[in-house]
């Protein structure tokens, strides 16, 4: 299945969906009455495409949405719950067993969960599906697999090959074109040869090609792209030879036509394309062209020949392009991956490539750690989070191979921002703890990993564990320079603040801020220290001192291009404004922070901003709105298993009490139900005014179509009169990113001037016409 524009979202297909109308209708009908539907069939039969097409047509029936779980890159059954949790944006569910946390999250939600490619995890998928369905009465599961899951109540839609033309269909071009297999063949042929048409003269040959390929979609697509360079008569001759010769020799003996077609496609590739095909299975998930060059290039296949070979494989439908934001990544269909992996094993290059793969993602991890005014931190960290399956594979190699243990410690420590800033606490804890258990203490790598593990433990609320780790590191007299010792001091200060020793914590945090200059570990030491120092000061009522700390922190963040920490500074300034009685300014700071934090999936910051916006709403006389926001925040704390600072918890409780006093019991309960039903992303949209609660549900303002969420943010700032440079400064991205967004907005709306965008965005905010109006 192709990739997704975001974690858990349905894939955005590059090619059109053809045929299979009855099968799609059958899946949709079954989902209305059945809680588990499995689409089964052989390799290349189109299971994933049918499931996604069916799911996209019923998404409105599920108040809490459709979530897509891609399992092709999950080789270990122990990672199944983690993959589902990430698709649900529940990356670090809690300290309970994952399946229990998943069940609790889904218990009262109307969700359709699409588990794609279950066959290699069929037992684990069956157990998980049964557990979740038993505990979550509104849940529906749609699965794809080469075999059924075998769960009681499962309904199976077994996909057969696409219908073939009947013996008399060739007598009518119109009748022949309506046959699904022929329609798919023609659709893919015209993609490579727009002038090709079905005629009475070629009808019999087209029908014969589809028949020779047994109506199997993947085989049809692989052959159709050959029409760019080969006449159909020549293709028929080649099929005669290959299908007869290879039908008994292919890896997939259950589906010899698919295997034979894959073999034939391999033969027709160039030498470079064949070599690249054999190396690409080292990627366990999607990859971009730069990754292919960095991992797969060598003397036999130089880097400058990688892209032409990759595009050649795309042209031949061997590699599938996937839209991701404004770029393109690539993936292999399962049977294509299996074939390439077999060639890789034969070549003896597998271990060499795995190490190249490790070095590439280690370098990517280090790039993510380095922020700067010319880097788009949001985009880079988002890319790294989406590349998690490949990063996990690299960390797994480090844990397996004693020669790479130190490399693994380096990588897991470097990825602190993925664990702390991007909501992957459980994963970080697992990999750091596993690698530390394999290494002897006393090295700089060991010390850094121990401190980052303590950082993660604090964020998860494991304070006793964090204390033990800090003491262990302190006793080891860690090497690694002053910056490492200051991280130890910073974490000690954080613990003190959490435990209520504000002055003691401030002393440690102030020492870090005063002593630490620019250095290689600045992002994880200085800026978080400043944020925590500012929070402690405001809890002691030192608002002026707190404001100065947050303003200094924000200036440093802007100089360094650190959007993640800058958003925390904005949140802190919101707290200062609230303490000074300025609810409007507090809400403005909180919204600025929220706009950035949503792109990092920083759950802790998101729920803190929701609580601050709730406090501002109470102050402005909007208790129902405050109740919804508080309820959404409480759900976020629970679902994410996050630690709230005790003083934060007290502030939230006081706000909730004010809301309770301001509303009747009925209105309070209704607001709480509506807030809990929003989900974290829905709560963000509601908090930012993108959605309004109506009738206990959330109604999206469709007037902003066809813009993406990020494009809407840019359009709103254009309406405020900001230049592209100012917008880039506000959103903490590089200007070229904003330039690109503005160009896309103009193109999508059919406008030619920023003034038109500004007028259009203003009308949207005022509830005007949804249609673009050309000025």
UniProtKB/TrEMBL annotation:
Domain called HTH luxR-type: residue spans: 700-765
SUPFAM superfamilies: C-terminal effector domain of the bipartite response regulators (SSF46894), P-loop containing nucleoside triphosphate hydrolases (SSF52540), TPR-like (SSF48452)
InterPro entries cross-referenced by the UniProt entry: P-loop_NTPase, Sig_transdc_resp-reg_C-effctor, TPR-like_helical_dom_sf, Tscrpt_reg_LuxR_C, WH-like_DNA-bd_sf
Gene Ontology BP term (one): regulation of DNA-templated transcription
Domain of life, per lineage: Bacteria
Pfam family of the protein (one): GerE
Gene3D superfamilies per record: P-loop containing nucleotide triphosphate hydrolases, Tetratricopeptide repeat domain, Winged helix-like DNA-binding domain superfamily/Winged helix DNA-binding domain
SMART domains registered for this protein in UniProt: HTH_LUXR
GO molecular function, one term: DNA binding
Protein's recorded name: Predicted ATPase
Organism classification: Bacteria, Bacillati, Actinomycetota, Actinomycetes, Streptosporangiales
């Amino acid at each position: 299945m192709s990739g997704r524009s975001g974690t858990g979202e349905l894939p955005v297909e590059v090619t059109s969906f053809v045929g299979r109308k009855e099968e799609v209708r059958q899946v949709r009908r079954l989902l209305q009455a059945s809680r588990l539907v499995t689409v089964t069939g052989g390799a290349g039969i189109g299971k994933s495409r049918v499931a996604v097409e069916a799911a996209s047509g019923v998404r409105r029936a599920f108040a809490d949405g459709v979530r897509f779980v891609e399992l092709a890159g999950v080789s270990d059954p122990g990672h199944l719950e983690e993959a589902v949790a990430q698709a649900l944006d529940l990356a670090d569910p809690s300290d309970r067993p994952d399946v229990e946390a998943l069940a609790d999250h889904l218990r009262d939600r109307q969700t359709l969960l699409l588990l794609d490619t279950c066959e290699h995890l069929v037992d684990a998928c069956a157990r998980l599906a049964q557990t979740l369905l038993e505990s979550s009465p509104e849940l529906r599961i749609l699965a794809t697999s080469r075999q059924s899951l075998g769960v009681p109540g499962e309904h199976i839609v077994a996909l057969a090959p696409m219908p073939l033309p009947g013996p008399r269909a060739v007598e009518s071009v119109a009748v022949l074109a309506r046959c699904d297999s022929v329609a798919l063949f023609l659709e893919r042929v015209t993609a490579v040869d727009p002038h090709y048409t079905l005629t009475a003269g070629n009808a019999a040959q087209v029908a014969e090609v589809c028949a020779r390929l047994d109506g199997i979609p993947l085989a049809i697509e692989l052959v159709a792209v050959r029409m760019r360079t080969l006449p159909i008569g020549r293709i028929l001759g080649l099929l005669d030879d290959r299908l007869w010769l290879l039908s008994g020799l292919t890896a997939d003996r259950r589906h010899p036509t698919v295997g034979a077609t894959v073999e034939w496609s391999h033969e027709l590739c160039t030498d470079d394309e064949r070599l690249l095909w054999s190396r690409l299975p080292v990627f366990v998930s999607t990859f971009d062209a730069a990754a292919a060059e960095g991992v797969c290039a060598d003397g036999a296949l130089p880097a400058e020949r990688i892209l032409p070979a990759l595009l050649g494989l795309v042209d031949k439908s061997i590699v599938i392009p996937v839209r991701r934001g404004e770029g393109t990544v690539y993936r292999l269909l399962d049977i294509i991956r299996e074939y390439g992996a077999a060639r890789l094993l034969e070549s003896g290059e597998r271990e060499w490539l795995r190490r190249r793969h490790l070095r590439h993602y280690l370098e990517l991890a280090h790039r993510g750690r380095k922020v700067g005014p010319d880097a788009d931190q949001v985009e880079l960290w988002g890319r790294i989070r989406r590349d998690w399956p490949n990063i996990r594979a690299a960390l797994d190699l480090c844990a397996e191979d004693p020669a790479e243990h130190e490399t693994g410690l380096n990588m897991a420590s470097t990825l602190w921002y993925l664990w702390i800033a991007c909501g992957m606490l459980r994963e970080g804890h697992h990999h750091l703890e596993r690698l530390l258990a394999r290494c002897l203490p006393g090295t700089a790598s060991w010390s850094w990993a121990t401190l980052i593990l303590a950082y993660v433990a604090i964020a998860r609320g494991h304070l006793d564990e964090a204390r033990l780790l800090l003491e262990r590191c302190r006793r080891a007299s860690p090497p690694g320079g002053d910056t490492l010792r200051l991280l130890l001091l910073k974490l000690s200060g954080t613990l003190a603040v959490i435990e209520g020793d504000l002055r003691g914590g401030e002393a440690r945090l102030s020492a870090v801020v005063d002593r630490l200059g620019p250095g290689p570990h600045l992002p994880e030491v200085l800026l978080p220290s400043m944020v925590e120092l500012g929070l402690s000061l405001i809890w002691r009522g030192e608002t002026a001192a707190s404001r100065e700390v947050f303003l200094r922190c924000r200036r440093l963040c802007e100089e360094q291009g650190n959007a993640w920490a800058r958003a925390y500074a904005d949140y802190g300034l919101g707290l200062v404004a609230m303490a000074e009685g300025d609810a409007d300014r507090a809400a403005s700071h909180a919204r600025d922070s929220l706009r950035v934090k949503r792109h990092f999936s920083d759950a802790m910051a998101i729920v803190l901003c929701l609580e601050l916006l709730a406090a501002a709403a109470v102050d402005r006389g909007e208790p129902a709105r405050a109740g919804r926001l508080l309820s959404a925040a409480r759900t976020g704390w629970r679902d994410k298993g996050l630690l709230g600072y005790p003083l934060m918890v007290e502030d939230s409780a006081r706000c909730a009490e004010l809301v309770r006093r301001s509303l009747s019991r009925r209105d309070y309960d209704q607001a709480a139900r509506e807030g809990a039903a929003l989900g974290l992303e829905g709560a963000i949209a509601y908090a930012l005014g993108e959605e309004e609660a109506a009738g206990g549900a959330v109604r999206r303002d469709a007037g902003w179509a066809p813009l993406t969420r990020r494009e809407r943010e840019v359009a709103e700032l254009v309406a405020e009169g900001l230049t592209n440079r100012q917008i880039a400064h506000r959103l903490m991205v590089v200007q070229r990113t904003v330039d690109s967004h503005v160009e896309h907005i103009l193109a999508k709306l059919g406008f030619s001037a920023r003034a038109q965008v500004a007028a259009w965005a203003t009308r949207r905010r005022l509830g005007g016409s949804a249609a673009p109006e050309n000025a």
